[in-house]
Amino acid sequence: MRATDEQIRSGLTYRQIPEGTLVGAVELPKVFVDYRKQRIPAGTYTLRFAIQPDTGEHTNTAPHREFCLLSPAAEDTSTADMAPKQLIELSSKVNAGRHPAVLLLWPNLEADGGVRVLDKGKGVRVATVQRPVLAGNRKAQLGFAVTVAGWWTQ
């Protein structure tokens, strides 16, 4: 992570994570519907940080631009950051090349309260957690709130 001392004191946000950073993994025991209403097959996936492109076709498609993209874990075997274009191509394999598989990230600046599931309205639920991270060589905390159910409706 890249963060200044002031950002660490104020609370880290997703914007301090370089795009393409590996942030986790998930095993889906059955078909899952992502934030775009895409059916994701059961399997094991990596989660990498991405920012939604600022193009006209993405206007009003989500309340935030920060996402985790799911990629087949068998093909994503490095912990190194991945270039955004490469990440989009790899994540799109989940849906036969149509679009990356996405989990919307919501802000989570709350103090660590353990893992919780919160209702964001309109059927959207997020799992929240605070995780220790290194910002340069400094220890810090970063809150995650990952969409685990529902999709955006306008």
Question: Per the principal axes of the C-alpha atoms, what is the gross shape?
Answer: globular
Tell me roughly what share of residues is in helical segments: under 10%
Number of helices: 2
Supply the helix-strand structural class: mainly beta
What would you note in describing this structure?
- The chain has about 150 residues and is mostly beta strands.
- The chain has one domain.
- It is about 10% helix and about 40% strand.
- The chain has two helices and nine strands.
- The protein has helices at about 5-10, 85-90; strands spanning about 20-30, 30-35, 40, 45-50, 65-70, 100-105, 115-120, 125-135, 140-150.
- The strands form three sheets. It has a four-stranded antiparallel β-sheet, covered by helices on one side. Strands 7-8-9 form a three-stranded antiparallel β-sheet, with no helix packed on it.
- Strand 7 (about 115-120) and strand 8 form a beta hairpin.
- The mean pLDDT is about 85.
Short description:
10% of the residues lie in helices and 40% in strands. It is mainly β.
Write the layout of secondary structure elements.
Elements: H1 5-10, E1 22-28, E2 32-33, E3 39-40, E4 43-51, E5 66-72, H2 84-92, E6 101-104, E7 116-121, E8 124-135, E9 138-149
Antiparallel strand pairs: 1-4, 2-3, 4-5, 5-6, 7-8, 8-9
Jot down its keywords.
154 residues, single chain, mainly beta, three-stranded antiparallel sheet
